[in-house]
Amino acid sequence: MKDRWEIILSGVGGQGLILSGTILGEAAVVYEGKNATLTSSYGTETRGTFTKSDIIISSGDIYFPEVTKADIVLALAPVAYDRCISDMDKDAVLIYDSDLITDVKNTGVRQYGCPITQTARRLGNATAANLVALGIIARMTGVVSETSVIKAIGDRFPAKSQVAELNIKAFKGGVIICKINLYTGQGVGWK
Amino acid sequence: MSSIKYDDYLLKDKLPLFWCGGCGNGNVLGSILRAFANLKFKRQKTVVVTGIGCWGKADDYINTNTFHGTHGRALAFATGIKLANPDLNVIALMGDGDGATIGGNHLIHAARRNVDITAVLVNNFNYGMTGGQYSGTTPEHSFTSTSRYGHIEEGFDLCKLAAAAGAPFVARGTVYGITQLDKLVEQALCKKGFSFVEVITPCPTHFGRLNGLKTASLMLNWIKENSVTKNQAEKMSDGEIRGKFVTGVFVDVDKEDYSTRYKKLQQRAAEAVEGGCDK
Amino acid sequence: MTVKGNVRFIQGNEAMAEGALAAGARFFAGYPITPSSEIAEVSSRRLPKLGGVYVQMEDEIGSIAAVIGASVAGKKSFTATSGPGFSLMQENLGVAVMAEVPCVIINVQRSGPSTGLATKPAQGDVMQCRWGTHGDHGIIVLSPSSVQDCYDLTIKAFSLAEEYRTPVILLADEIVGHMREKVVFQELQTDEIKVRKAPGCSPEYYKPFRLGEGVTPLACYGGEHVFRVSGSTHDEWGFACSRPGNAEKYIRHYTEKIENNRDRIVLTREYNLSDAEYTIVTFGCTTRSALEAMYIARSTGKRVGVLELVTLWPFAEESVMEACQNARAVIVPEMNLGQVLREVQRVVGRNIPVVGVNKVDSKAIRPAEILDKIREVETCLV
Fold it and tell me: Quick one: pLDDT at residue A179?
């Protein structure tokens, strides 16, 4: 079982990717006793420009908190896709939102397009795309259990509120997409 | 029980006062200490905060708690003191260079915030301690050690500034009219909220010397001749009022002070349920 | 937020605010500035619930002034800022030194000079912390390298501030301040929280600046003890005093009360130093790169050790000397052009090479860059 995961979440400001990373980290740290770090780089603008979050989850100590060898890269916007695809480690897997990114480049990198925005919209609101993406990543890596993530979502929002329900639904939607469309962690060759 | 007198607040062994002959600071100090005595302020519950400059030395003669900080920042120190312990009487003493020039931003924000502090700003139209350079209140066309060809800037009307910034009590007195000043200071100290008193005061040593007013009597006369009451001013044209010192109370309204509002905020906060990041 | 026990996954900035509250801080005055604003935000939400006060001042000059005022009025007080705001605070930082007022100033460093790269990290304020305010003085500066440190060292900062009646600077950086990481809010022992003692003497004998016999307790405005506080050179009563001998005595005191207690103030962490051929001296966010580099080097058989300066000032001269004296070379990585490097060189002397890995491009120093430097030094030494 792989005990250290390095994940990049990229998109544009306002998509809620830092929240996705935070929920993932909380699930790992608070509910599974692991260590995690989350660092983000962003511009001076609050919304609209390229953002990137690095999340590392490990059962051991984490020193340098930036991703040096990514296992998974998520791209939720064309600008993010273009920047990430050109800078991918050969062992990494790229997950992108096929609803937003149509100009796919074949660089030999393993990449999977998923209907992330559409799924979120179908489940209630396109703004929950970040949680759909989280579901895909959680399922694909198995880095944290689905139960832990759902508990972490529950901590962030008022219990049984609409927003909590929407986010949990979106997360589960991501898990299902992963089950249907993607290989499992084993399948893409993670050890 | 013997009555409280102004000199119960005076550090007599620090006399004589450090200020030049003809300076008005001692008179203003007298008004403040008389007001303390009339209001029976407890020394333990009173903090006098001073800035830097001639008037900033006033705390040397006062036996309440004192705080002597940096140039222009008296109101900022006073804000911290008052908000940390709203039971204290907090008085900020500032000069025109100190409180209205380098510290002008703190003045308008303290007025806007309505912190329950009394500010007594002594305006002698120049920086006395550093040799009589022009300040933010130096009148146009006057001469100072750095405006030898006549000052080209207009000075602030500090009462209008404080009023515009929202102070619930704004008044101006002069060292010539001590009886009125005593009353204004006392009224200001009684006001719950930010109260501002500007005092026009002579500096014969510097400002007076370069403007044909080099004795105390010439300066006092100049202040007297140019002072008009608020009622008189109302009947004067803009041209007539230019260069005059209008005296009296300009604003006296009731407004909830910062600490009262903050206490309510604390109650709301205590009742509020701590939410997650997005609520 | 309901969490399991006291384990959280939060930002360094949030942990510093929580640490301050745990230490008993009940007054915050500040001005918003990236990358420190979350400290203000958390304080503004949490303080009023605890009966404390949050006030947003008109600038950083006013912020530190209000913090000093509130501290003398009896509240444990703090502010948080970044380089530009910290520059504005320098004059009044001197008031806290001169008037011996305990308070905590958090500086979450960003790239400079001036506005610089406003959202990007740097470690360029090491010397501003030490010498930013004019005149001779001692200063205590702590530097966190993890979110746990952000919590623990903020508590420590308040204790040191009260113990030595001095401003204490917590010198964080954008990386540590914005990073989310695991933190455990440990139960505090009573001796970890320093409570200000009222002066024991009767009011008429209280001299707030009495020298000798340790640090004189600071009374609070509003209590029995009526007292004077001054940023001018003053005597033991707080009266302005211009006698040369008095000035000499007090100005030396401000340095000596810190320097003479180095043993109790200086904190360092040592990693694999006993057999180290190469010693990395580091602080703040760069510690993490140094440790990663050390473990990578160790895995290839290279004997690398790390000395982390948790207390930056007073400078850990003894620990640096000890950690470096048997090394073949000393590496000092920092996100500036050599502010700690020169201190290490001063302590270590000329017989051992001390080289920097210095970066000011706003990117974190990567472990590989430290390893490259070690290799480079190795080649030179052969």
Answer: 87
Q: Do B277 and A156 touch (CB under 8 A)?
A: yes
B50/B91 Cα distance (integer angstroms): 8
Is residue C191's pLDDT more than 90? Answer: no
Q: CATH no. for residue C277? A: 3.40.50.920
Residue A190 lies in a domain: no
pLDDT at A46: 65
Assess whether C276 and C177 both reside in one domain. no
In a domain, C188, yes or no: yes
B181: nearest Cα among B83, B248, B90: B248
pLDDT of residue C192: 80
In a domain, A188, yes or no: no
pLDDT of residue C245: 97
Chains that touch C (3 or more CB pairs under 8 A): A, B
**Interval B2-56: pLDDT, tens:** 689 999 999 999 999 999 999 999 999 999 999 999 999 999 999 999 999 999 9
Residue B17 sits at the chain C interface (C-beta within 8 Å) = no
> What is the torsional sign of CA C350, C354, C359, C360?
negative
Q: In this complex, is the C-beta atom of B265 within 8 Å of any C-beta atom belonging to chain C?
A: yes
Q: Which two tokens stand for residue B232?
A: 């008189």
Q: How far is B276 from chain A (nearest CA, A)?
A: 5
Q: How many domains, chain A?
A: 1
Residue B231 has pLDDT above 50, yes or no: yes
Residue A160 in any domain: the answer is yes
Name the closest residue on chain C to residue B80, using Cα atoms.
C66
Quote the Cα angle for C131-C134-C140, to 5°.
40
In a domain, C201, yes or no: no
Reported pTM = 0.96
Whether A12 is in a domain gets the answer yes
Query: Contact A76/A15 with Cβ under 8 angstroms?
Result: yes
In this structure, are C60 and C164 located in the same domain? yes
Backbone angles phi, psi at C234, to 5 degrees: -135, 170
Predicted local confidence at residue A159, as pLDDT: 82
pLDDT at residue C382, as a whole number: 77
Same-domain pairing of C21 and C170: yes
Q: Which domains does chain B have, with CATH numbers?
A: 6-271 (3.40.50.970)
> Tell me, what's the pLDDT at A158?
86
Enclosing domain of residue C160 = 7-192
Residue range B90-107: mean pLDDT, rounded? 98
Q: Residues with Cβ < 8 Å from B108, sequence gap 6 or more?
A: B161, B162, B165
C165 CA: distance to closest CA in chain A (Å): 35
Question: Which chains have at least 3 CB atom pairs separated by less than 8 Å from chain B?
Answer: A, C
Q: Are residues C177 and C40 part of one domain?
A: yes
How far is the CA of C225 from the CAs of A86, B84, C72, C222, in angstroms?
A: 69, 17, 12, 8
B42 touches chain C (CB under 8 A): no
User: Could you tell me if C26 and C171 lie in one domain?
Assistant: yes
CATH value at residue A100: 3.40.920.10
Size of interface A-C (CB pairs under 8 A): 68
Residue-range definition of the domain harbouring residue A133: 4-181
pLDDT for residue B271 is more than 80: yes
- pLDDT above 80 for B65: yes
Whether C219 maps to a domain, the answer reads no
Domain shared by C175 and C317, yes or no: no
How many domains are contained in chain C? Answer: 2
CB atoms within 10 A of CB A161: 11
Q: Is the pLDDT of residue B193 over 50?
A: yes
Looking at C192, C213, C246, the residue that finishes a domain is C192
Q: Determine how many CB atoms are found less than 10 A away from the CB of residue C214.
A: 10
Nearest-by-Cβ selection for B80 from C29, C59, C61: C29
Which of C70, C228, C239 is closest, CB to CB, to B81?
C70
Given a cut of 50, whether residue C104 has pLDDT beyond it is yes
Mind telling me how many Å the CA of A15 is from chain B's nearest CA?
A: 13
Does the beta carbon of A163 lie under 8 angstroms from any beta carbon of chain B?
Answer: yes
**Regions of chain A where pLDDT drops below 70:** 43-47, 182-191
C235 occurs within a structural domain: no
**For C277-319, how does the pLDDT look when each residue is reduced to its tens digit (9 = 90+)?**
999 999 999 999 999 999 999 999 999 999 999 999 999 999 9
Cα–Cα dist C186/C148, whole Å:
10
Complex ipTM: 0.97
